[in-house]
Description:
The protein is an alpha/beta fold. The protein folds into three domains: 2-284, Rossmann fold (3-Layer(aba) Sandwich); 308-423, Anticodon-binding domain of a subclass of class I aminoacyl-tRNA synthetases (Four Helix Bundle (Hemerythrin (Met), subunit A), Up-down Bundle), CATH 1.20.120.640; 435-486, no CATH class. It is built from 16 helices and 16 strands. The protein has helices spanning 37-55, 71-80, 84-101, 117-129, 162-167, 209-219, 233-248, 279-283, 288-296, 308-334, 347-365, 370-389, 395-414, 422-432, 439-454, 458-470; strands spanning 2-5, 10-13, 21-30, 59-67, 133-138, 141-146, 183-188, 196-198, 201-205, 223-229, 253-259, 262-264, 267-268, 304-305, 473-478, 481-486. Helix 12 (370-389) packs antiparallel against helix 13. The longest helix is centred in the middle third of the chain and has 27 residues, at 308-334. The two termini are 38 Å apart. 41% of the residues are buried. The chain binds one RNA strand through strand 3, helix 1, helix 5, helix 7 and strand 13.
Amino acid sequence: MRIYNSMTGSKEELVPLQPGKITMYACGVTVYDRCHIGHARSAIVFDVISRYLRYKGFETTFARNFTDVDDKIIKRANEENMAWDAVAQKYIDEYYLDMDMLGVARADIEPRATEHIEEMIDVISGLIEKGFAYAVAEGDNSSVYFAVEKFADYGKLSKKDLDDLLSGARVSVDERKKSPADFALWKASKEGEPFWESPWGKGRPGWHIECTAMAIKHLGESIDIHGGGADLTFPHHENEIAQSEAYTGKPFARYWVHNGFITIDKEKMSKSLGNFFTIREVLAKYDPEVIRLFVISSHYRSPIEFSNEQLRDAEATLDRFYTTISRMDDFAAKSGDAAGKSGVNPTALDAMLSGFRNSFESAMDDDFNSALAIGHLFELVREINRYLDMKPSGRDAAALITRAKETLTETGAVLNLFGRTPHQWNVSLLKVRNIPLSEAAIEEKISERKAARDSKDWAKADSVRKALDEGGIILEDKKDGTTWKVKIA
RNA sequence: GGCGACGUACCCAAGUGGCAAGGGGGAGGUCUGCAAAACCUUUAUUCAGCGGUUCAAAUCCGCUCGUCGCCUCCA
């Protein structure tokens, strides 16, 4: 299994610290607002990675944090006239609402910064003792900074040269720091801000230190995989490395994994640019699985352009899967118990099923190439449809189709896709498309049309079809009845 | 300015040395009372451009053009 390591810039064989076990830490969100679709991508990417690692038999411990105290949360609390911790909790709740919809599983450990103040203080104290950090008085309290120049490898992840950083005009000059590139481990608290007691007086943690403290506490001093969005590479992850390795003297993470951005008009989606859509907004128009498929359909490191057209594509794609699942279900319901009819050759499907897991795994083994894996799923879908078109019958055919459906749904489950019934899919589409027809109303129309068809009143039958079609519902006549589905396009 | 990516058909998207996956869309066909779905055929002699290495390059190297990201909070 190969994984791209941002540290080395190349794909490497995944060799965990302890055979058969993986520890993974992904940087989560700062909870001061609703998540946008870029946060969704990151969450989905690491969800897929952790699911796949487990599928491959690694005993995986996955931690994803919440940053629940920081400047933006405090600012938000002041704006909303709420307590800062109430703001944090509110957006943690919102986060779970979104992620549950998107099929993002809870991480094994979801540590919050505010629950690890002690651990952070321990790390900071250790860094001061070792000479990597220094305290600077600010009134009655002190702030603590990490002395970047003391850490020889600073810049190794983001490939930045410390001299360049120091000469760069964009580093804000802060008189309290010994060097402009130094970063805060602990911030002396100002009037009205949340604070904790510490050896440096009343204060609160800097941003980066929480990940170091929480990763070490929950996963150990060296972890296997550390991930997050590509924008966290610098300074966040660079600083984590500096703190952690200065503190423990050990490599912090073996593999650094960064997901690409979601763009709008080719530009990175971000809060500051204002070009973002919240997950909630998108969920109002699209089924959550559509968003998930949209994300998984591209490689996790590639930028993906967000647009209605892209989501419509993903929706059509998903509909194709569910249509095939529906065909298989129909077949299973009526295939007989007798021997099969002659002239139906199952070889192609049989062969594809035999090799399928292998294809799927080689795609995913190669740096989690979910886009290729989905391509393989399409090949399977076509082969299934091809087989069903031959109108097979009998118990051998039924067994083959059962195997096909299991293969499709079990590999889909690794990506957390295709977990619903085709009916659930269509009912969901009815909702997101705001189609004002109930299932019962549609069924009623179908009966009406059946009566017309039975008396060969084609004009009437067609008018029912046409009326439903204009409402976004397509009817499919099958041997033993008519079914409906929501029109895609 | 420093550093790092990327540029594959009408659209999306795999592919890191050996005849360019897959999906959408388009065109034609099979099936169907009419449809839909599905299937079949077709849609890139070519991978931004120009050179080079090689028996062989979308894949490696160099240059050019274009786009984006990081260098400040950011998934």
